[in-house]
Amino acid sequence: MPKVESFTLDHTIVQAPYVRVAGVEHNGKGATVQKFDLRFLQPNTDSIPTGALHTLEHYLSIFLREEIEGLIDISPMGCRTGFYLVVWEEHPVSEIALALHHALQRVLEQTEVPAATAKECGNYKDHSLFSAKEYARQVLSQGISTDPFDHSRLIQVD
Ligand code: ZN
Questions:
Q1: Domains and CATH numbers, the chain
Q2: Residue 81 alpha carbon to ligand 1 centre in Å
Q3: 145 exposure class (CB count in 10 Å sphere: 0-12, 13-18, 19+)
Q4: Whole-structure pTM over 0.85, yes or no?
Q5: Could you point out which of 19, 40, 44, 75 has its C-alpha 20 to 30 Å from the C-alpha of 13?
Q6: Is residue 45 helix, strand or coil?
Q7: What is the distance in A from the centroid of ligand 1 to the CA of 82?
Q8: Cα 99 to middle of ligand 1, angstroms
Q9: 50-67 and 93-107 helices, crossing angle to 10°
Q10: At 103, is the secondary structure helix, strand, or coil?
């Protein structure tokens, strides 16, 4: 069976919200791709409703692209407790955590969901800006840790 990094994480001892490195891949030809686990909610205690998750995905796909050089993809986790982020080259966890902090702050100021039309989105009826803001606010108020096992290691924000 192939080894899946996230299956090796003990989800019962993590302390969300956090950002952690979930893997680094080198292809042997000079290309490096890094994957991050952006955990919004404590696993197995709560999950983000699909409308909020979907709306957050739309915003983060724009705002994090503006913040992080070489961002390839940000996608919701199937368990709906956070997102995976994939990026070219290796980045410090603190950079990704700070970018997430800034992106969530911007979500709180929004009045319209981007690309929420049948032409631009695969399920445009399933969005909730209200709920997306509630979860963004919750993550910001709890703080984002750069250590998945120690929530006292919050990113320093100005
Ligand atoms: Zn969509």
A1: 13-142 (3.30.1360.80)
A2: 18
A3: buried
A4: yes
A5: 75
A6: coil
A7: 16
A8: 21
A9: 120
A10: helix
pLDDT reported for residue 1: 83
Per-residue pLDDT of the chain (158 residues; tens, 9 = 90+): 888 888 999 999 999 999 999 999 999 999 999 999 999 999 999 999 999 999 999 999 999 999 999 999 999 999 999 999 999 999 999 999 999 999 999 999 999 999 999 999 999 999 999 999 999 999 999 999 999 999 999 998 87
Contacts of 49 (CB under 8 A, 6+ apart): 80, 128, 131
- Indicate the residue type of 116: A
d(CA 58, CA 56): 5
> Ligand 1 centre from 48 Cα, in Å?
15
Residues in Cβ contact with 85 at an 8 Å cutoff, skipping those fewer than 6 apart: 35, 36, 38, 64, 68, 71, 73, 74, 96
- Cis amide bond preceding 17, omega within 30: yes
> From ligand 1's centre to the CA of 122, what distance in Å?
5
φ and ψ at 84, to 5 degrees?
-100, 140
